[in-house]
Specification:
495 residues, Lambda Exonuclease, Chain A, Nucleotidyltransferase, domain 5, 3 domains, 7-stranded mixed beta sheet, 5-stranded mixed beta sheet, globular
Length: 495
């Protein structure tokens, strides 16, 4: 049974999930990666390839399996100075090293791992130090000396301006001392993995002590006693570990079985009360007080943004959100509504200038701009003000008067048991305005919109497909702002 670096990292996070991957792969057959997860993998591959520009003259091991191991050995025997994707198979372990650099004086190799992140990560399941220690352990089993270890990651201060400057785009951090310190623990883990994978299946998994968003793929299989909606779904339960762990230790998984509800406060208490009463909890006074502060016209506003590990456009850096589209529903005090929108379809020159120019025509900052999770829109406006100083005052005025409609739900003025502790519009909308749905759209999520926009602006995409994507993007973003209109109307009718 082959154990890869990915397997090792999985083991440090949830070893039961790894055991199931190896022994019961059928459990994963229907598990499809999201567009977001696929993009993360793709971004990692792109960052790896782009980082090779830091090491001119390197050779790439582009074969697979045993052929890659054999090719790597030939390069090592010849003391090849720089090797990309060097491959090793030793004692059940199999790895591909991003970059090996030979030091003639010390007769050993420097090992570099490329990470499509803006910093060093030191927590599972993305522990960069332990990742390197694992690779170093496997390589040294083959008789190769690793004299230095480091991570090459993206520089979050770098902004593209013309041709990519790879020396500024990437930062190389020497982690040799940390890797040496971690080596003993990692070596023991490597021994434990082999033993674990050879054992019979064990009950449960360590994710039982984690909130829903931090659980493994096979959580429901490994923990059949936990209902679909459980204490794991309580709002920000990870911030109350002592209480949460006590429930789990007692076998308390259902919300109705919680034996100390008096200990719950804030959003947790509101979620519990709504669930046990099985009806919405509504603070009409707080809702009215909040909505009465809004100044007409109301501008229901939403951006869609694009990110990439390697910056594609001038003025932006790694993973910096690029607003490529907005939708705007304008409501007058008499209830009249009109819709406006903008989409960058052919990126040229100053990418976002046409977008800001249109916003200036469409929005009067004297009214109230309404967003959902407004910090996102505010951050985009701040970036646009930086790029377009002539529009800075306009954008700053919008931010100063912006209202976050999510506030009504995040402050527990309206709590429905069906929200399951969330204030996300994707959770609130189906409950409050069930007739509105994203299910019939070709694009139904923000990460999907980002991926489709990248496809739309590609020169390789046929014109007919570009037009279809354009239509799909406009429909999706329009529904985001119309959803806010309908939620506002619902709340207004309550008061």
């Amino acid at each position: 049974m082959q154990i890869t670096k990915t397997d090792y990292l999985e083991y440090t996070f949830c070893k039961k999930n790894l055991w199931l991957k190896k022994h019961k792969p059928e459990l994963f057959e229907d598990v499809e990666l999201s567009d977001f997860e696929k993009k993360i993998i793709e971004e990692g591959n792109v960052a790896d390839e782009e980082a090779r520009n830091l090491f001119p003259g390197g050779v790439l091991v582009d074969s697979h399996g045993q052929d890659a191991v054999d090719d790597t050995k030939q390069y090592l025997d010849k003391k090849q100075e720089i090797i990309f994707q060097a491959t090793f198979a030793e004692d059940a372990f199999f790895i591909r090293a991003d970059i090996l650099v030979y030091d003639k004086e010390k007769d050993g190799y420097e090992l570099y791992e490329v990470k499509a992140t803006n910093s060093i990560k030191r927590k599972e399941p993305h522990h960069h130090v332990n990742d390197l220690a694992f690779q170093k352990g496997v390589i040294e089993k083959s008789g190769i000396s690793i004299i230095k270890t480091g991570v090459i990651h993206l520089n979050n201060e770098y902004k593209k301006l013309g041709k990519i400057d790879y020396q500024k785009l990437f930062i190389t951090e020497d982690l040799t001392d940390e890797v040496l310190e971690a080596q003993e623990i990692v070596n023991q883990q490597m021994s434990d993995i082999k033993e674990w994978l050879g054992m019979p299946e064990q009950k449960g998994c360590e994710c039982l002590y984690r909130g829903t968003n931090a659980q493994c793929t096979t959580f429901a299989y490994s923990n059949p006693d936990v209902p679909e909606y459980s204490v794991h779904d309580i709002n920000r339960i990870g911030a109350s570990k002592k209480m949460f762990y006590e429930w789990i230790d007692k076998g308390i998984y259902k919300l109705e079985d919680i034996d100390n509800p008096e200990a719950l406060t804030g959003a947790k208490k509101a979620q519990y009360n709504a669930y046990t009463l099985n009806k919405p909890i509504v603070n009409e006074v707080a809702i009215k007080k909040t909505l009465d502060k809004l100044v007409f016209p109301l501008y229901f506003f939403d951006y869609e943004g694009f990110v990439s590990a390697i910056p594609m456009f001038d003025g932006f850096g790694a993973y910096e959100q690029i607003p490529f589209q907005y939708s705007l529903h304008i409501m007058q005090e008499n209830g009249d509504i009109e819709h406006r929108e903008f989409l960058i379809t052919d990126p040229q020159g100053d990418l976002t200038h046409p977008l800001v120019e249109r916003m200036k025509e469409d929005i009067d900052p004297n009214g109230t701009t309404i967003a959902w999770y407004s910090s996102y829109e505010k951050q985009r406006n701040t970036k646009l003000a930086e790029l377009h100083p002539d529009y800075a005052e306009f954008l700053e005025n919008i931010n100063e008067g912006m209202f976050d409609l999510m506030t009504i739900f995040s402050k527990n003025y309206y709590v429905d048991p069906a929200f399951k502790g969330s204030a996300s519009i994707k959770k609130v909308l189906p409950v409050i305005v069930p007739e509105l749905t994203y299910k019939n759209l070709h694009i139904s999520k923000g990460d999907q919109a980002s991926e489709r926009w990248e496809k739309m602006i590609s020169k390789d995409t046929p014109e007919a497909e570009k037009k279809q994507i354009e239509k799909d993007l406009l429909e999706y973003c329009k529904l985001d702002t119309w959803a806010m209109v309908e939620i506002y109307r619902f709340l207004n009718n309550l008061i």
